[in-house]
Every structure is written in C-alpha cells, then in structure tokens.
Amino acid sequence: MLKRLWTDRRGATAIEYGLIAALISLAAIIAFQMLGLSLVDTLNTLTNAMRGH
After folding, report:
1. Phi, psi of 37, deg, nearest 5
2. pLDDT tens digit string along 3-45?
3. How far apart are CA 15 and CA 34, in angstroms?
4. Residue 38 has what DSSP assignment?
5. Where are the alpha helices (DSSP H) in 1-53?
6. Torsion sign, CA atoms 37, 43, 46, 48
7. Does the pTM exceed 0.90?
8. Can you tell me the distance from the alpha carbon of 4 to that of 31, in angstroms, rounded to the nearest whole number?
9. CB-based contacts of 19, cutoff 8 Å, min separation 6
C-alpha cells in the first residue's frame, strides 16, 4: 500500500498545474504594474466593449 501511494503521480500533477497557474497570474500582475495599466480600468474597458458602448 505504501509503495502504491509513493508512486502515485496524480497529486504531483495537480500541484504542478497549480504552480503553473500561480506563475502565470504573477507574470500578468507584474506586466500590468510595469505597463502602468490599472486592472479595474482594463476590465471596465472590456465590459463597455462587450456592451457596445
């Protein structure tokens, strides 16, 4: 039973996907800050564009 638990990779894969998502989020936040973009302004612009304003 312990050997089976030790060789099970499903948990490791979930952790890897979580780390990838965290790194992508961090990169997006840093990019917004470096470009001087406000996330609220960007989301408002997207919302208005989707509404047709």
Report:
1. -90, 140
2. 665 666 666 777 888 899 999 999 988 987 887 767 788 889 9
3. 28
4. -
5. 2-7, 10-35, 39-51
6. negative
7. no
8. 42
9. none
Please identify which residue in the block is written with the tokens 């638990």. Answer: 5
Task: State whether the Cα torsion 41-46-51-53 is positive or negative.
Answer: positive
Query: 37, 46 in Cβ contact below 8 A?
Result: no
Angstrom distance (rounded) from CA 22 to CA 16? 10
Please state, in angstroms and as integers, the Cα–Cα distance from residue 32 to each residue in 18, 23, 47, 49, following that order: 21, 14, 18, 20
> At which residue do the structure tokens 């990779």 appear?
9
The one-letter amino acid at 5? L
**Closest CA relative to residue 28, chosen from 17, 16, 18, 39:** 39
